[in-house]
Design goal:
20% strand; alpha/beta; 278 residues; two-stranded parallel sheet; globular
């Protein structure tokens, strides 16, 4: 199978490319060329999907994997140009759901809506940063844009918290680094608080299987397939780093009283009760 990957040198994209290569597929990467030393053995096309798609014109692939689309207009443009493909995978996010506080939202849950004019305001920076409160709405609109251009061919993956090597965020990596340092470690909430993370390598393997089967539609992609607790996660970090860490669990009220911001200042902590029970 000939696969075009829009992106492919950072986090999940790197594993998607690797999984496809290992399966024997012919993989082409299209990106801005910021990291040309990743996968030097395969074809790499340089361009900017927001205005420079010349390198893709006249080419044909069996499948496309879009890891970098967060602007509806550019997703539409890519889909129109690549309309002959049999399958288009769009990497979305569970942030598309309009009410993430509801426990157990499935892939039929209500998603954010956004009109095109508002989307353009956001993209131009006049309504706030893209990767702020508008990230989910723009992803939702991008899903719709892909399906409109390629009806019945789109596989939308609404991923949860992705972790693993090459993770460029500090959400999961913070805990590995801090626990490796050892000593007393402030730990948020209760040890039995459930948490979901999914390894980028597992996700990439599964997505490649879905592409090979020609599966379309929308899927939440979270993990693991059992109840993982924050206590188990931190103990796992302690075990793999050989640390002498000692965990001091503090209540959510204590964190709130001391004005600790969930998620941003205390990675992987979202209050179990109000305002985010789900």
């Amino acid at each position: 199978m000939k696969i075009l990957l829009l992106g492919g040198t950072r986090f999940l994209g790197r594993y998607l490319a690797r999984a496809a290569i290992e399966k024997g597929h012919e993989v082409t990467l299209f990106n801005r060329g910021s990291d040309p030393y990743v996968f030097p053995e395969i074809e790499q096309l340089k361009g900017d999907r927001d205005g420079d798609l010349e390198m893709l014109k006249g080419r044909q692939w069996d499948a496309v994997i879009d890891t970098s689309g967060s602007i509806p207009r550019t997703v539409s443009k890519s889909c129109r140009l690549l309309h002959q493909v049999k399958h288009y995978t769009y990497i979305s996010s569970i942030s598309v759901y309009s009410d993430p506080t509801e426990p157990g939202v499935d892939d039929n849950g209500e998603v954010h809506t956004l009109n095109d004019d508002k989307a353009e305001e956001i993209i131009r920076g006049t309504a706030g940063p893209i990767y702020g409160e508008y990230y989910g709405p723009l992803k939702s609109l991008s899903e719709k844009a892909a399906e409109k251009e390629l009806p019945g061919k789109v596989l939308s993956i609404r991923a949860g918290q992705i972790v693993g090597p090459y993770d460029y965020t500090d959400r999961f990596v913070y805990w590995l680094k801090r626990i490796a340092e050892g000593g007393e470690i402030l730990s948020p909430g209760r040890p039995g608080r459930p948490i979901q993370v999914i390894d980028a390598r597992d996700l990439a393997q599964w997505i490649n299987q879905m592409i090979e089967k020609g599966m379309a539609g929308t899927y939440n992609a979270v993990g693991p397939d059992y109840t993982l607790t924050m206590g188990q996660l931190l103990e796992g970090c302690k075990q793999v780093t050989g640390s002498n860490a000692d965990f001091t669990w503090v209540s959510e009220k204590f964190l709130d009283d001391n004005k600790v911001e969930p998620w941003g200042e205390m990675p992987l902590w979202i209050p179990e009760e109000f305002p985010f029970p789900g």
